[in-house]
Amino acid sequence: MLVIRPLQSDDLDDLYTMAQNAGKGLTTLPADRALLQRKIDRAREAFNQRCAPEAALYLFALEDTRTGKAVGISGIEARVGLEEVFYNYRLSVTVNASRELGVHVRTPTLHLSNDMTDTTEICSLLLSNDYLGGGNGLLLSRCRFMFLDDFSSHFSEKVFAEMRGVSDKNGLSPLWDALGRKFFDMEFSQADMLSGLGNKSFIAELMPKYPIYLPMLPDSARAVIGRVHDNTRPALKMLQAEGFNFNGMVDIFDGGPVVEAFVNNIRTVREAGNREVKVVESSATLDVPAEQRMMISNRLFRDFRVTTIPMDCVETDTVNLTREMANALLVEAGDVVRLAPLKDVGLPPMQRVQGHTNDSEPGGDS
To answer: In 2-15, which positions are buried (b, 16+ CB within 10 angstroms) versus exposed (e)?
Structure first.
């Protein structure tokens, strides 16, 4: 069984292996053991409420309960730009016109921006190659929206994601080579690593503050602005299916697009509903396609758990769980859980039902 849970300290080796295999360009998860350990520590502080809500980093692991190994990770940064300045380029148009000369010129332009400051970011999505397919990536990505929904007071009304931009197998970025290198005098991989390590002051010190006129860049650089890395296309499609749209911002290093959505407009949030748990003896098959599966969350804060179950388990006011499912979710009969379709299959929003929960507020017992 695959279960989403908070990242733990003993996940470090598994996380490091995944980061190594991801290659260059995944800024938030560089293959650096010390940095990854600091991220794990931050996540533990967040789930245990030992930091200010706006400073929290929530990291979720996808665990294969058969092996006990973490095979995927995804995250939520509660607010960006409150300690370190958060930079993007905003795509814009500069118009120059002369009525006397009959000239009207529109020039696409990049403007350095801090517009995403104080906004929640979903980040750090990474899945082991051995677990690709079968809806595992969907679960890893969409579990975050169930957490955002249940504990919305900790986050902004709008959330965004920076998508990995175009770079080649050697980690070379056309936009960086045409623009960033001129001001930073370093390789893209080095600048990306420094940013991932949290050392972002160099951006403010060295990045040009004036608009960048795109016609002055080579075709190779202009062509990748707003485009994603091939390995990131599935993640972008998942977010688009949830209602995320390009907001006109791009990454300052590789030009990857920024997509955003309001939490209450996200598909998983709109289609979610509550059910009361019934623990049953069942011999029904649990191996069904992703289109026939529901995500189910225990609605706990410190011990957050999400897995998937067949849609056949869901009834009007209750959900039937085997003892194995209930144990994996840390729930008992009578608890209220939240469910949402794993994939968008045109189901109407679930009717929410009332009832007590194990820990519907962040401060409850774990």
So the answer is: bbbbbbeeebbebb
Q: How far apart are CA 331 and CA 337, in angstroms?
A: 8
Quote the CA–CA distance of 267 and 340 in Å, as a whole number.
9
Q: Which residues are tagged catalytic?
A: 229
Label residue 336 exposed, middle or buried (CB < 10 Å: 0-12, 13-18, 19+): buried
Helix axes 33-47, 12-22, angle to 10 degrees: 130
pLDDT tens-digit readout, 293-337: 999 999 999 999 999 999 999 999 999 999 999 999 999 999 999
- Give the residue carrying structure tokens 């009717």: 351
Give the pLDDT of residue 109.
96
pLDDT of res. 106: 92
Residues 6+ apart with CB under 8 A from 12: 33, 36, 37, 40
CB atoms under 10 Å from CB of 182, counted, come to 10
Alpha-carbon span 22 to 36, nearest angstrom: 14
Of 142, 345, 116, the residue nearest 263 (C-alpha)? 142
309-318: long-range pairs with CB below 8 Å, 24+: 310/284, 310/285, 310/286, 311/341, 312/284, 313/284, 314/275, 314/339, 315/275, 316/351, 317/275, 317/276, 317/353, 318/275, 318/276, 318/277, 318/278
Q: Please, what's the b/e burial string for 253-272 (b: 16 or more CB within 10 A of its CB; e: otherwise)?
A: bbbbbbbbbebeebbbbbbb
Of 340, 318, 343, 321, the C-alpha closest to 332 is 321
Give residue 241's pLDDT.
93
Q: Where do we find the tokens 């009525």?
A: 99
Task: Write the DSSP symbol of residue 314.
Answer: B
Residues with Cβ < 8 Å from 361, sequence gap 6 or more?
301
Give the distance from CA 181 to its chain's centroid: 28
Does the pLDDT at position 25 exceed 70? no
Locate the DSSP E strands across 120-262. Answer: 120-127, 158-162, 212-213, 245-250, 257-262
